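Fold this sequence, please.
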Amino acid sequence: MEKTKKSKSSSKATSSAKIIAGYREYLLTEGNQPASVFKFCKDHGFNETEFYQFFGSFEAIEKSIWQEFIVDTRTRMEADSNYQAFTTREKILTFYFMLAESLKTERSFVLYQLKGWKNPSIVPSFLKGFKTSFEEWLNSVLNEGKGTGEIAKRPFLDQRYDMLFWLHLMFILQFWSHDESANFEKTDAAIEKSVNLAFDLIGKGVLDNAIDFGKFLYQNSKN
């Protein structure tokens, strides 16, 4: 009878947040993943069944942490009553600034995860859910921008904007990870300058004029 009560009490106390906190602490203090799910659970006072109710592996915990960065950023951003009136540029700027704030609270974990990642064209497993969630949000915002004319519709090119912004986000992550300025002020400046540059390229302007001029030269070269 006593064992049953203890088991129920343990189950109530166990949550995904408790598992994530224990895993994060172990990773940062030991510098590697726990030897096994069994040992991790034993050291933290819950059993494997409880662990697998929430996560299928340690890698699943890491994916969950990264995906939550996107969820948290979107939730806070969209709670702003002015958000829907933002331009596409303002929405993306706000997203990056708020994401940087979220990452700041978990900087040690983020730096640990990013330290071995050198090739932005290869997406590590812990970032796959993060990438999917980011691109789902981004594409909805970019489509709004195309509808309002803020973003130029260019055959073939505009279908790759999400990939370009993913690489852009990876640049920001890497810049932030090496930023030693007070309150990461240099990262804020890098975000603003790089987003403005991106919109100079995907908005109607210099690039469109260059494409039109290229078409003109090509057509007249046949005459």
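The longest helix spans residues 58-78. The chain has two domains: 2-56, 59-215.
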